[in-house]
Write a structure and sequence with these properties.
The chain contains nine helices and 19 strands. It has 323 residues and is an alpha+beta fold. It is found in: Cytoplasm, Cytosol.
């Protein structure tokens, strides 16, 4: 999405190391960092904790994504022209006037520096020097983040009850892939606990308080974990399903997954603003509004309204949730 070459870094005990072979733009496949290099350079980087640097944020400044320590090995920092930092801020609400910057720690002195651009997933910063840097945002309003839910089963001595720890994190590759759920980390992060006396299956849901809209749900089932390598039969089945037209029930599941960015999805599916207004006037329930928008797309593309074509239509939309 950034017109960059995807690179896989080597893992070090204190971070990651990646060789940028020549002048160009490169995206780390693990952290989502994007480097613009002027020549061949070896880059070393690690994810830091906002618990250490968050105290430098005052007034209406808030963190917008992970903070990184980036360094070039045996070369001046100037060989990196720019870095794009992944952020998790939801930009679907256009009424919320927000300004991106970066917090740059120079020595022990925090400096707020301007950015040159941002997208639905990244904040671009022209390199001045290399030391801890992370994307921040200035707004007087509450900030919504794209999120991920991690559920861990808590073992009980008698095995007669079911206790789960539910963690909420930002939907950032850096946060998810760098996360180490050791005992020390889980004590720091905090969690919700879900306790069940009955046997699985049962359903866990997260519900938006103001709208009572379900933003995430999952069914907890008992059984062994499936292999991470699907069989040829499973792959063939998935390919076939992608070619089928989704049913109204399946589109309802898609509608439930969409958040505030659903109107942007409508634009990518060629639903006009007037048609959106008509849908909202005729239907008060937000989930049903989303469903009717998707059904309008399906009816207009009869015979070609497959799951694959739906995915292709919205693949350029940065704010779309992974689900």
């Amino acid at each position: 999405s950034h017109g960059s070459e995807l690179v896989t870094p080597k893992r070090l005990s204190k971070g990651r190391l990646v060789q940028l072979e020549e002048e160009g733009t490169y995206e780390c496949s693990v952290t989502g960092l994007v480097f613009e290099a002027s020549e061949r350079v070896l880059v070393r980087y690690s994810v830091l904790s906002w618990s250490k640097f968050g105290a430098f944020l005052h007034d209406s400044w808030k963190f917008a994504g992970p903070i990184f320590n980036v360094d070039t090995v045996n070369k001046d920092a100037s060989v990196l022209k720019s870095i794009q930092f992944p952020h998790s801020i939801c930009l679907a609400d256009t009424d919320n006037d927000m300004t991106f910057s970066v917090l740059h720690i120079k020595g022990n002195r925090p400096v707020i520096e301007p950015t040159v651009d941002h997208s639905g997933s990244h904040v671009k910063w022209n390199v001045t020097s290399l030391s801890p840097v992370g994307p921040i945002i200035q707004t007087s309003q509450a900030v919504e983040h794209h999120g991920v839910v991690l559920v861990y089963k808590q073992l009980t001595p008698d095995n007669n009850s079911y206790s789960f720890h539910v963690y909420l994190g930002t939907n950032s590759a850096s946060d998810i892939k760098e996360l180490k759920f050791t005992l020390a980390v889980t004590k720091m992060k905090g969690y919700f606990e879900a306790f069940f006396e009955q046997h699985p299956p049962f359903k866990l849901s997260l519900i938006e308080i103001n709208t009572e809209e379900t933003v995430w749900s999952a069914t907890i089932r008992e059984g062994r974990q499936r292999s991470s390598s699907p069989s040829e039969d499973e792959l063939a089945f998935k390919r076939t399903r992608m070619q089928d037209e989704p049913s109204e029930k399946q589109l309802l599941q898609v509608a439930k997954r969409l958040g505030k960015e659903w109107k942007q999805v409508a634009i990518f599916l060629d639903v006009t603003s007037k048609e959106l207004d008509n849908i909202q006037t005729a239907e008060t329930d937000v989930t049903m509004q989303k469903l009717k928008m998707l059904l309008m797309w399906k009816n207009r593309n009869s015979g070609e309204a497959t799951a694959r074509n739906l995915l292709e239509s919205v693949k350029e939309l940065d704010d779309l949730p992974n689900e």
